[in-house]
User: Fold this.
Amino acid sequence: MRSVVRRELAALVSLLALLTLVSAVPSSAAPRSLTVATDKGAVAGATAGGVDRFLGMPYAAPPVGAGRWQPPASAWSGARSATSYGSRCPQASTGTGPGMSEDCLYLNVYTSERRTDRPLPVLFWIHGGGFSGGAGDLYDGSRIAKTDNVVVVTVNYRLGVFGFLDVPGLSRQGAGNYDLLDQEAALRWTQRNIGAFGGDSGRVTIAGESAGGHSVCALLSSPPARGLFAGAIIQSGGCPSLTVAQATAKGEDYAAAAGCSVPATSVSCLRAEPTDQLMAAGGGFTGGIRSGPLPVSGVPELPLAPGVAVRTGRIHHVPLLIGSTRDEVRQWALPFANATKEQYERAVGLEFGAQADAVLAHYPYSAYDSPYAAAYAISALWDSSVFYGLGGCQYQNLTARFAARQPRTYFYEFDDPHPPTLATTPAGFDSGAPHADELGYLRPLDTSKSLTPGQQRLSTAMVRYWGSFVKHASPTTAGLAAWPSYNSGRYMSLLPGDDSRALKSAVYANRHQCSFWNGISYDGLTTNPDRLAAQAGVPTS
Assistant:
């Protein structure tokens, strides 16, 4: 009886605390307050624009002090407000937003205020940013939640050195993969709690773009993630990883750069450093298209390199939607904006060696428009070959490997030739459909205000396609062009207006000259574009 009384008193205290939190929310921010009970306590969210929002909910304890470079631990208990975003994880720049702190393991839940008698499917979004930037609050899930009547979860995870450092003695589990452990902890929180928000824990689809897409492939390859999701979406992401040896070498170089090179005291020295000093040390953990952090394979949470896991079929076989933009790396080729024909050809020689003449025969400088012919040419060959696992022939081959074991695999290319972009480019430079520009068609963005009527229709179609996949494990939806599985020999070309259509896979292969690329031996870009341009003698401005 005493234990029952204690529990009832504890519940009353939580309720009173919650009421205090709710009353403190400004009416302009919370037109209608909401209370939901999670396994750690009650949260008070708010409704706006027909969407219930629960923001800044911790899914794990702050990874600070002794928790820095440790697996995520149990989170808070008690009642709390959920009407503002949690801090972003440390990164070079957060722009405008909720600020930055190592106390950053928060997630957000969006769901339509419309309620049904049955639990709703869930889209669990993992942000991109090269594993060095980004945050869940940058991906407002309200549009998909309202349009498709699904629950959307967005999540923060540790970035840069805080998520990927691997030095001997750092922790008993997770060194180099704290980001992956964070994502799995957030998925377990979702499994335990999403029912309270109207979601179906048995129909969770993980999704991510760029580094978020890399994360999805890692989760598909991670034994501890089994059963945490039922579907997956990879947007402009691949399956790259580092070996333990590579990660340790990078970690030791970083420790030296941070002034903690003595092996016996390296870990304690690093843990004693302030956040800003750890950020300032850099050392391969602050980004870089080819040199930034990556998941680490050969450990319990990721026994096989994700690419190997896919190739050998040792992954979680769930329905998959996968695709990329037509001109993934066009903007990353800007270091070649001022390159001459000779400098372009020198760069191709540096990258492809004995095969350079064959590559140049397929991508001659003369085939591209001035004054940016070199940038267009090198981006075209990178888009067709492989650039960090994004797009092109190896991306089509990756999709085929998935589809060989999972019939419900769907492939797309975002082909809008002129989507709005926030990137700064030289006057007259045609960015095409570059990396990440499809995101503005799936979520509210400032750039969406400049969508043409045809682009608005494409945006609406994409939101419905993605929603249909989350709900039915197939993107095909009434009133839109049918989207067959990749095993049918077709993929979806996403175009403005009502022009999106399923095309034969051979169209994609011909567009990217895959008969050539699949017939030679080559690897991805081995250095950053700016460094390659400098090696080729291209002026920096």
Remarks:
- Residues 1-31 have pLDDT under 50 and may be disordered.
- The two ends are 77 Å apart (CA to CA).
- Residues 40-318 form a domain with the Rossmann fold fold (CATH 3.40.50.1820).
